[in-house]
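User: For my dataset I need records formatted as: sequence, then structure tokens, nothing else. Please produce one.
Assistant:
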Amino acid sequence: MKNKSNLLLLSALSGGLLFTLLFWEERLALNLLIYSIYLLIVTFINPDVVKSTKLKIYGLAHLLAAVLVVINNSDLSVAAYYISLLLFIGFSHNQQIRTIFTAFLAAILQMVTVPFNAIQNLSKISIGNFKLKPVFTLIKYIFIPVIIVTIFACLYAAASNVFAHYAEALLTSIGNFFENMLHFFFKDLSIRRIMHFFFGLILTSGLLLAFFNKSLEKAELKCREQLVRTRLGLGHKSLWYNIIETFTGNLLTRKMALKTEYIVGIISFAALNLLLLLLNIIDITTLWFGCEPTGNFSGELHQGTNSLIFSIVMAMAVILYYFRGNLNFYHKSKTLRLLAYTWMVQNFILIISVFIRDGYYIEFHGLTHKRIGVLVFATLCIIGLATVYFKVARQKTIFYLFKVNGNIWFALLLTFSLINWDVLIVKYNLNHVDAVSIDPYYLTSLSEKTLPFLDKNRAKIHPSTNNDSEVAKVDRPEEALMRKLDNRIDYFKTRYEGSSWLSWNLQDWNTAEYFGLNK
């Protein structure tokens, strides 16, 4: 036990030093990959961590996300990096967790409880015959009062300007005292650099030191993937049930009889099918086979797409409500299932309409992140409908939906991170500039990786006569666009020349190669 604690604490300390060496005044790029490799090595040599196949898969997924940050260096790849890191940490210390959502929460809980985890591990260390446990027992007695005093001091400072003035003066004096002492002994060190080190130490500790309470893992183990018919007894009422019953009687808490709920479901799904059938017929006849832009075409497409996506999500929620429990086992539920399947098929047709609407939007106004987002969300809706079908057909629980959809969403996140979206948007729009009403101000505001392509196609970057953007309505728009592009190129050159190898990424290197900055 002592060797394990010594290993983890030494790893956390080394990780804090590595963090400040890698990330001090650097951009997120190659340094993230190095830091991730360190975390993966320490986690896999930790004897407390079970090296399961699931953990290896999520470890490789996180390594892929770190590599994609170096290759694509996009906001999406950075988001995938952080999410994959938290999932890897959550699964590494909670091996029995089954869903990425619970793993994510477990990792957050582990990060929040860093002080408690550190104290518990430090209390196990002994130096010769001297044990540190009594020292950290005393620290525990001081730690909680300090937290409480700090919280109330902040509240009193917010309530009284005079109190806030004295508190600020006291904190400033304490800070100056320690800064003067530090500069007296170590002239080259700064308080900011030391704070950066402590932040890295706390972060690394939160990623490596496991939280000793496994309540979250135990709670998830009680969740089932397969529905089981249950008989609810009147004698078993929760506290929440009793509170609601006190104010509303049995109006909100009573449950419909199974037959009554079945009849209500039949009527609801029959009416919804007829309603959606009418909408689908209108879309098929007016949208699927040719559509000419008239009036506020952009606004109509945008509003219609948002409404349809919301309706699809609500449709899945309605299905989940009716097939949440014993109605799945009702002997007459075949008709209800058939109506539900029909509604799923109609919602799939509705998703096709969303794709077509967004396709028209892209055809007339070009690619943007939001329009790509609509395509991605519509794809997720198809996956959601498919998993809802399996849930109803095979009598699965909502927990099953969370487990399956979570894994699919995470896989798609990594897949979409493979694509360099900014470059794709700029290339598509400028290659179709004669047919697409683009917004050049939007294109020139994308990331620096698009600068080479923008610079090569300066002649194509001009406000379109069909573009109704208010931004485009300025004096001498072509000159303003070129000036903006030149300023961004100059900024990139200055930034790149001042960057170290720790901030290296493939996109910056390609852009610098185009402008002749690489030696």
